[in-house]
Amino acid sequence: MHEDDIRQILKKAGADLVGFSSCKEYFPEYTSAVTIGVSALKIYKLQRTDTVQAMNETMDFLNLHARQIFAEEGYGSWGALFSQEEFPRVHDLVPHRELAIKAGLGILGKNYLLVTPEYGPRVQLTTVLTTMPLYPDSPLDFDPCNTCNICVEECPNNALKDYFHEELCTECYTCVLVCPVGKDFEEIQVYAEEPSIWSRL
What we know:
With about 200 residues, the protein is of the alpha+beta class. It has one domain (about 5-200). It has helices spanning about 5-10, 40-45, 50-70, 95-100, 150-155, 175-180, 185-190, and strands at about 15-20, 30-40, 75-80, 105-110, 115, 125-130. The strands form 2 sheets. Strands 1-2-6-3 form a 4-stranded antiparallel sheet, with helices on both faces. The chain has a two-stranded antiparallel sheet with strand order 4-5. The protein is globular.
């Protein structure tokens, strides 16, 4: 099975973004990482009253689906379930953002989040590590944040004024909602008053 096959299977299962990278510098016992992204807007559109639970179910399903693919191919795999990971301000077991950047899914934005060309910073991520050798994707060769300073200017606490000041961040998610990058920008504004989903970015 090749990378394109895995990508297509996961996208058919509901993933919006799939990227491959080497993870040996983080996890020497594994060969490759598959980072899976889902648009937050897609989860909102499920119109579930329990949005966080819907998000957990969506991401956990894709994580387990990827693991099943590798098991069927005879390779080991592991990836913390999204629903079981630590909450913000505590280091995750897997550095999703760093691996996503390596896999070309996005860049490190001025809001210190992964900013993707397709959905800006409005994505949820889960990662599966595997012993299966996979050809890594290339990092993005452009920076969509290069000439934009909107998130810095709109932050109500100046947490982004020269770098990310974690002690000033109140997790208001203004920087997520005002980021103009992505095809979902206009539509996501409908949900701007319902920030619960952003608490897991």
